[in-house]
C-alpha cells in the first residue's frame, strides 16, 4: 500500500493540458456575466430586482408561429408520417449523413433565406449538433495544431473555445475600428497576415461572421469580393459563419459569400479552385430560435472537407427525433415564407425599441441591419477611456444596474467603450425595464458626459428623442459594416 | 490573375493532416462490410438475395414496449408537461449541464441496471451526443497528443477513430487470447505497459468495455479488482465503457467497476484518490435501442474531468426535445423495471437461436452472457489459419453467403479465425435465413474441417444439435471472460 501511494505521488500529470488549463476561454467576462445572471435572474413578478439577461443572443420573438404550426401538424412531433408511426425507423437512424428529407428541406430553407440566389446541394451539407460543433469540425479539417485563422474583431467570445481549445489552432485578430464603422479592409487583413507570419504561424484561412456577431451588420458585397480576392491570392480558406442570415431585417440585406462566389462563375480554373476553399456554417438556433434542438451544418463544395467532416459528425449527430420534426417544418414552404417575413419584422421592431430607447438616454449604437443585438457605444458613461474604464462600467452595469451585457473587450475589440446588447430574448416590457434602469443609472451618474442633457426620467412614457446625447467625435459615416466573428451555443 | 494562380500552386497543404489522411480508421473491413451491405441490403420481400447485416450491434427486440409506453404517455412526445406546452422552454434549453429532470432519471436508471448496488450522483454526469462523443471527450480530458491508453483486444473497431483520430492519443493493445477465453490478465497488462514504454509513450490509462464488445461477456469481479490494483499502482486512469450493461442476460451478471470501487470504501486516501481516476461511459443506444436519439454520458467523480468534459459537451449536446422525452420515459420506474426484465429475456432468446444454429453447422461461439452479438470461431471454415485466411473467408461470407459479419482482425484480435456476429438487429426469421445460408455454404465447402459431419441442410426444420462440429483443440474452460473494448454509433 505504501508503495502504491509512493507511485501515485510520482504519477504523471493526472489530466490533459487541455482539461487542466483554462484555454477553453470561458473565464472571460462574457461568460462570467452569465454566471452572475444565473445567480439572480430577473423575473417581473418573483424577482423584479434581478439581473436582466442582455448577453444572450436568443430569438424568442416568433415562438407563437412555431407553436401554431406544431399544433396544425401533429405528425411532426408524434414521430409519425402520414399518420403512421416511424418510431422504430427514427430510433435506429444514426446515419451520419443525416436524414435525406431533413437535408433536402434544410438546403431549400437556406436557399430561401438567400432569396433563392444561391442553390444548396444537400450532398454538400454536413449536419452537426449545433454550429459550435460545425465550426470546431471545420477547424479540425482545415488546420493542424499551431495553424492560424484570421478573424476580424470584434468577434464572438465563444470562438476562443470553439475554434482553438481542442484543435490547437490559433486565432490571429484582424483589427477593425470605429473609424470606418468596424468595416473590414484589405490593409487590416494584410496586417494580420504579416503578424501571423512574424509569429511563424501558418495561416490557413479567414473566418468571418456574416451577419456579424457582435456588430449586427451584414457584410457589403464589395467587402466579400475583397475577401475572396484575398483568400484566392493567398491560397487559403474562407469560412463564413452565416448563422444569423435569417435575421437581416433592413437594406442592404444579407448577401452570402456563396452568392458572390457563384457570380464569379466556376468556368475558370481559379474560381473553381477557390470554391473548394469557401465553407459556410449554418444553424437553426438563431433564425428559428431553436438552440435547444442542437442543429447546425457545414456547407462545403470541397469533397475532402465533406468526407472528413461527415466522419467527425459522429461526435455530434443531430437527434433523429429532431431531424424528423424539422424536416416537416422546413419542408412547409408556405410556413417558412410567412415565418421569415414576420420574424424579421419583429426583430426590426425590437431593435428599434432598443436603439430609440438608448438614444433617449444619450447612448448611440452602430447602425445595424441584422442580428439579435446592437453594438453599443457607452464610452460616455466611462470614467476613463480605457479597458479598465470599460471593465469598471461593465461591473456597474451588471451589479448596480442589473443588466448583463457583454463588454467589447470580451469580443477582442481593440477600442474600449463598446458593448454588445441583446434584445430578442425578452419581452418588450422587460426591454423597457432595462432601458429605464440604464436611464436611471445615467442620470445618477450625471447624465451623458460630452455635452448631452441629463437622461430622461421615464422612457416608456413617450418618445425619447428629445434626450438625444451626441456621441461626439465618432463619425457614423460608414455605419454599415463588414464581416466579423461569432456565433451560437451561448453556453 | 497569373500571380494568383502561381500563389495557389505554392499554397500550403489545403486540408489538415487529420482530414487528408485515413487515420480515422474507417477503411477497416468492419466499415467496408457496411458499405457492401448498403449497396445490397437484404429484404425478405423486395431483395431476398441481398446481404444480411450482422455487423451492426443494434437492439431492435423491444421496440413494442417503447411504443406502448409512448402511446400511453403522449406528453413525452408532445413537448408538454402536465398537458401544458413546454415548447418554448425546450426550444431555448441549451444549458450544457443538461436538463435536471433527465439527469436525475438517467442516474436512477443507471443505478437500477446495476441492481441499485451503485448510486449515481446526477451532478457527476456529463451528457454527450452519444457514447462516441463521450469516449472522445474523455480522451481529450485525460490524454495529451501522443499519450497512450491500453485497451484489451479484441476491441471495438470504431475506437481507432473515436479515441485517436482528433485527440492524437495512441492505443496500445493488451493482447488477450483464446487460451483463457480472452480473459484479461495482469501479465498481459504489464506486457502492454512495457511495450508502451519502449515506444516512449506515456500511458495515461486503461480502457475496457464491460460488457465486452465484441466478446459479449461481462468482466468477472476478480478481473475488475485486478484492474483497479493495476491502475492504482501505476497512478493512471481507468475508463469503463458500460454501454451494454443493460444487455447482461445470464449469470454471473454485470458488475460495474464502480461497484467494486465502492466496496473498497472511500475512507482511505488511496481509494479516494483512485476513485478520481475511474470514469464510466454510458449510452441509451444499446440498452434502449435508441442510437438515433444520440444520448451518451460520462460519469466521473473527478471534478476536473466533469468541468472540462461539460465544457466540451457544447460540441455535442443532446437535443432538448429528446431529453424531455427520455426524462419522462426513464422516470417511469414501473416501466423501466418491466423493460429491463423483458428486454434481457428477449436478447437471451435470440442469442440462443444464433448459438444453437451455429452449433448445428459445426461452428462454436465464445460462451456469452451479454451483448447483442457473439464472438464466433470460424477457423474450421478457413483454408489457412492466418489473417489472410480470415480475410478470404470474410470476403466469401460477405459476397457469396451474403452476411456482413465483422472479422476479428478489424477488432485487433491477435488470433485469426474469430468473427463478431450480431443477432439483435433483425427478426428471428431473418436470423434463420442467415443461419441457413451459412449451413449451405459450409456444406458446399465440404462441411466443417477438423472432423465434423457435413452441415445440416435445413436448420429451421428442427434441432440442429446433431450436426455439432467440435472446434477441436480450443479449450472452453474459461468461457466467461474479461473486459475488452468497444462501443456504439456504428456509423
From TrEMBL, chains A, B:
Question: What UniProt keywords apply to this chain's record, in alphabetical order?
Answer: Ethylene biosynthesis, Fruit ripening, Lyase, Pyridoxal phosphate, S-adenosyl-L-methionine
* Spans traversing the lipid bilayer: none
GO biological process terms, alphabetically, are: ethylene biosynthetic process; fruit ripening
Cited SUPFAM superfamilies: PLP-dependent transferases
Cofactor (UniProt): pyridoxal 5'-phosphate
* GO terms assigned for molecular function: 1-aminocyclopropane-1-carboxylate synthase activity
The reaction(s) annotated as catalysed by this protein in its Swiss-Prot or TrEMBL entry are: S-adenosyl-L-methionine = 1-aminocyclopropane-1-carboxylate + S-methyl-5'-thioadenosine + H(+)
Q: Which PANTHER family does the entry mention?
A: 1-AMINOCYCLOPROPANE-1-CARBOXYLATE SYNTHASE 9, BIFUNCTIONAL ASPARTATE AMINOTRANSFERASE AND GLUTAMATE/ASPARTATE-PREPHENATE AMINOTRANSFERASE-RELATED
Record protein name field = 1-aminocyclopropane-1-carboxylate synthase
Organism annotation: Urochloa decumbens
